[in-house]
């Protein structure tokens, strides 16, 4: 019995020593930024982020400072909230934001079904990008601006006229967002393009992060929204 107790005691002693040393050790250069601890593999901080994202980020900021890492799903996310840190990344590591792999991941997260991704990539690169370049070129910018402003004012006037028929609480972000989206669709694609996509676009936009990092959430509303938008 004593022979069996000795390995057990040694094992527990090593576990305790490991815990104490990891708890009280100094943060080395390679340990920076610090990692938010999690006791659940894969799920990690996903549940906390879904329930209260701003609250989680605020508590981590207070505890770990302006830079820290956390696991969400199977992805490690590095959060940098200091102005100097953000400026340094845009200045010295701007190539990260132009990575084809990141763009492909975003396209796949938006497209969903695998066969949709090549089609959307084709549309983005060979149709949308050249069209945006022509529309926003210096020689045609005045036409785009005039069309955009005209439709934007029309949308705002329509909202004011509708509001006189009955009182309804609407957020300022939604009013501005709907008007801007309608004006952009009209200026880019013409009057025949439907601009009744604000709700679907907002729904999909709210779920892109969860899709990109495979965070568990209720998929059905955004899946239906995405299906309508792709169509």
UniProtKB/TrEMBL annotation:
GO terms for molecular function: heme binding; iron ion binding; oxidoreductase activity, acting on paired donors, with incorporation or reduction of molecular oxygen; steroid hydroxylase activity. InterPro entries: CYP450_sterol_14alpha_dmase (IPR050529), Cyt_P450 (IPR001128), Cyt_P450_sf (IPR036396). The keyword Metal-binding applies. Keywords: Heme, Iron, Metal-binding. Belongs to the cytochrome P450 family. PANTHER family: 24-HYDROXYCHOLESTEROL 7-ALPHA-HYDROXYLASE, CYTOCHROME P450 FAMILY 7. This is Cytochrome P450.
